[in-house]
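My current task is to audit a protein record that another person submitted. I have pasted the whole thing underneath without changing anything:
***
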Amino acid sequence: MKKNISIIVLAIVMVLCLIVAVACNNSKGPGVFTFEESESGGVKVGNDKLLMPTDVPASADEPSIMIHYWRSNAADYTSWGFWLWADGADGQVYNIEYQDSYGSVTIVKLSTLGVTENDKVGIIAREQAAWNKDTEADRFINLSEYTIDSNNYYHVYLYQGDGGLYKNVEELTHGLTASFVSDTRITVNTKAAVKHIELWEGNTLLAEANNNKASTTIHYDFAEGTTPDISQTYTVKVVFKQDKYNAECKVGITALYESEMFDEFNYDGELGAIYSSASTTFKVWSPVSNKIVLNIYQNGDGNETPQTHEMSKGDKGVFSVTVNGDLAAKYYTYTVYNDTYPSGAEIVDPYAKSAGLSGKRGQIVNFDAINSTIVGWNDVSPKAYDANELVVWETHVADVTSSETWKGTEANRKKFLGMIEQGTTYEGVKTGFDHIVELGVNAVQLVPIFDQSNNEAYPEFNWGYNPLNYNVLEGSYSSNASDGYVRIKEFKQLVQAFNGANINIIMDVVYNHVSAAIGSNFDVLMPGYYFRYDSSGDMSNGSGCGNETASDHYMFRKFMIDSVCFWAQEYKLGGFRFDLMGLHDIETMNQLAAALKKINPSIIIYGEPWTGGNTPLDSSLQAKQSNTNKFEGYGQFNDQMRDSLIMGGLKAATDKGWATGGTTTANIANGLKGFTNASIKDLYKTVNYVTCHDNYTLHDRIIATGQFGKAADVFSGDIVLTAEQQATIKQMAMLANSVVFSSNGVNFMLAGEEFLRSKAAGGAVGDEIHNSYESSYKVNELDYALKVENADMFANYQKLIAFKKMFVKDFGLNSNEAVAANYAVEVDGSVITITITAKDNTVWKIVHANGSVADVTADFAGYTLYLDTLNSASLTLSAETPIAKYQTIIASK
């Protein structure tokens, strides 16, 4: 009996405890609210000092944006301001003009920005001179969500260190945000204490609670056995404690994408426009959308009423519709309706394989029809090169033909067809395509050729790292940007022509970010899914371009793999170079490489093993250099040897490398063996180089050291170099790549180094000289007059490249073991000596000497000279061959 009494008492106590808990929590609904004791110190506005004019115009004569920006130090207002741009357009600087009781004020007319009340405006708060950003991510003012006041102003409020954009002071100072942190918990944060809170699921009140604590952090936990409904919108509504201010916000669902609950939406099937002559089936993945409409157009741009078809939502959140009839060459878009875009947003299918002018509409493609117009296309196949015989020449499509010295057909200038036009010469030397073939490289890497966010009708120079449509070719490189079929045919003709010259095409891909995330097709289809976010809920900016994609999310991983496989198969590419590969996770890259190797076992894959900023992706998962030993089937740029040779990348401009007036030898021996450093020892994961499209050309990098006078004065022509100084620069540049072309691993060079290319000579000034991404065509052109001037240098490059191409065929260096057995390196301060034993037992000796060499000889007794980069008339090979400054000698016996 006592035992039964004890059980009854225990039960009563448990019930009382439950009653007390509920009473204290004062919540109603299937879940439970909990409130943390976290009284905020409040949000300070206003400044102690007035340092800017205070006569803020009371009204505007036309619609304008009034930007209110608070910083703790009023003195910042004189040096800080904004970078603003219309979505998809170039930006410009706007300085702070006024100061008021909140902080600073800047007024910008909509007409100045070229936008209307329904457009988006990008905004970056920054320290103008240094480009120091207040917050990392780009932000967009969606004017359709703001109300213009009676004085013609849209008011936008920003706060130092806060990534938000606010419509009024109250919204900012109360600061309500809410997001799922798991599939069972929502966390609400505010900047002021909350009195009452409600959670709504769609139009249904799910739970509510009163709060007697001073809380700015509140959690809602779903009842055991229940989970969120991803098709519903969750909204938090609160009443604040002190001023009874009411506010509401949508609950962010990004964390749900990381949960096991979301795995049920992972889709492995085909997406995009699946064409046949009888019908085309359209499939697009968007679990959060409630309606998607297919729009079919006759033209790629212009005013036109489309034929529309509402799509059906099926398993895994895939919308689809089949349209009968032959739709080949027609254009299409999707209009997507979901909680973030309730009025609908028209987008291009991420899986579109071609597009109309400026990429505004995707195109339905019959590739068989296009291929039938290219004689011999079916016989094209990328060449099977071993990585250790590969010499990659990197260029922009336009650079090859933009110079007046190219002398080809004007209509083909800066186009795909210009790159393959044959028979062009300048003062007796070959230019363009014939120049590349004559040089002897076996791979050409093209900086981005996919569809970019630009105006294809009036193209301006652009490197192309602003992706718009990943599976579409850039239209400005075709002879007719309005016809999506033309760009496909002409690029295939380019691939075919280079293939006929035994040169593979390598594609530079930029899956790590998009040109503008907000409003992009990825964002519209799945808000918050395709991009990474920081701990504050703002878009992460590991790319340095305002956003970074989430390769670790299943469906973006699928997209990347689908995309590269499409390019490799359809266009018969020889390889891929990944921009900022460190932002991609290793698992994605490993799976991607494996998929590509199934298509082409010899395909080459490599990337930049770093990021452009901080990323939330765990360091151990990043495809960055320190994790290279985890890479499977792909490699990375060896900046370690590069920096030892020329002090490139982010080194100080005045720093000098081993080849450019310095003495450091760190990692040179490793690099020559095909290693990155002492812990990364695999030539098949190494790309050796000294220059690429980023940063300086060799000529300009050497001048930037200042050893020939103040760099700015040399670049401007205020200091005229002597013939001896010019010869030394040429010798340094030649030496740097001579070391590269005697190394194991993929060898890589920037186009034009073979004749001492200079961007300063093209008119670049200041930062343009090492960062010419949006400079003129003139700055970036290949000037073939330099080939005439430096014919001896070009001949040296021909021999170096031919020598590198012997590494596998003649030397048998097709494995790390073979290199260890038959390739020896000795680095002795100012001299590097390499000995290679070929398959036929011929011994090759390479000696490199830098500028500090003095009274050094090398034993070349019995050797036959292959190359002397100084072309010394007096050179005689002997047991005591004198070695000169900046000289490379290659000989065999």
